[in-house]
Write a structure and sequence with these properties.
The chain has about 350 residues and is of the alpha+beta class. The chain is about 55% helix and about 15% strand. The strands form two sheets. The chain has a five-stranded antiparallel beta sheet with strand order 4-3-2-1-5. A three-stranded antiparallel beta sheet has the order 6-8-7, with helices on one face.
Length: about 350
Amino acid sequence: MDNYLFSGMLLICAYSAGWLIYLITMILLRRWGRVISLKSFKVSLEPLKRPLRFLIPILCILTVIPYLRLAEKERLVTGYLANAVFIALTSWLSMKVVHILRDAILGRYDIHVRDNARARGIHTQMRMLANIVTAVIVLLTISFVLISIPGAGHIGVSILASAGIAGIVIGFAAQKALGNLIAGIQIAIAQPIRLDDVVIVENEWGWIEEINLTFAVVRIWDLRRLVVPISYFLEKPFQNWTRTRANLLGTVLIYADYNIPVKAIRDELSRILSESPLWDKKANVLQVTNMTEKTVELRALMSAMDSSALWDLRCAVREKLLEFLQTRFPGCLPKVRLEGDKK
């Protein structure tokens, strides 16, 4: 009984010492966090609080287990359990560190600015890499926990040592899933799509809202979500309107009668664009692009900083040019001529 009492008191002392060390660690982390924030990195060390709350006391308990006055079997079982918990908590802490580093880097790149092509690329790469590292940490954690348990160690060693064979077996069982996983890694490197890219996928126009290891989510203009396998963007053609930059060119087509004064329409287009805050002052062209037996086709070319601004700009230009024609040149609207035989 005295041995169990001594062992219990020793474990309580170790646990209390762990909590004291934890409190001191939290004070140091808060100070370091403020210092890091002054160096253009907005690092939040708050996520480390929860795993450290359990990890440090467990570490202290591990140090006193050899001194417990217990039977050999009881001491070994206690040590195995504590070791497995320690490995799991270390894995939890590692994943938190990965997320902290990811958020610290992403905090320097704002994807909500107008010209955000580089920021979207960094966000895409960092999120994909963080997901891959997290998956590897989980796999290693399972292997090390199994290795630490007597009788199950060979399973953990097999997971690490025969990764190639396991990959072949899993590859046959889940070819599409692994294909999407590999495609996700390729997309993180090559970046045919990035977060907030404007794309047309399956004849649907929208923005890349989310990129995961195996699928991507496209937010369609009417707020629907299109979930697409990540391999789609490597195997099938799609339109990416913001691949190199966010600003875009747009057109408005006008169909009018042959007697339309093109110069007056061109001047009116310049006036409309100059008064619009949506125009980025880069493209302003009006051209006669086609003539049929009934109408003349005019194409107004304009530019804007992004797809949303371009859509609003095209709608505004179309409306104001129509109003201009109706008011100033109503006779230039499309019409059908009928002529009788001359006698």
